[in-house]
Write a structure and sequence with these properties.
Helix content: 10-25%
Number of strands: 7
Mean pLDDT: 75
Structural class: alpha+beta
Strand content: 25-35%
Shape: elongated
Largest sheet: 4 strands, antiparallel
Strand order of the largest sheet: 1-2-3-4
Low-confidence stretches: 1-20
Radius of gyration: 25 Å
């Protein structure tokens, strides 16, 4: 009998969070094809080169504001942080 009471209590605990939100509308998960865009963040490399990071895309920013994909390799930011790029994308 104690096992049955314990199982009933566990079942109530498992359902309680669902019941607490029963009156709230269901939230839809984002579609798999949706992409999240992030605002570009500009950084300065140790050598003074300006770069822009937008999501995983890294671009070199020219004096006139034009952007080109960052070259492959490891790059050191002015604060000492190192980033690695390949094909204009952030690797780590």
């Amino acid at each position: 009998m104690k096992k049955l009471a314990l199982l009933a209590a566990v079942a109530l605990l498992a359902v309680a969070p669902v019941a607490a939100h029963a009156n709230e509308p269901a939230k839809e998960a984002p579609a798999a094809t949706e992409t999240t865009t992030m605002a570009p963040v500009e950084h300065t490399l140790k050598d003074g080169t300006k770069v822009s990071v937008e999501g995983d895309v890294v671009s070199v920013v020219a004096a006139d504001g034009t952007k080109t994909p960052a070259p492959d390799g490891e790059h050191e930011l002015a604060d000492g942080t190192k980033i690695t790029t390949k094909d204009g994308k952030l690797v780590k």
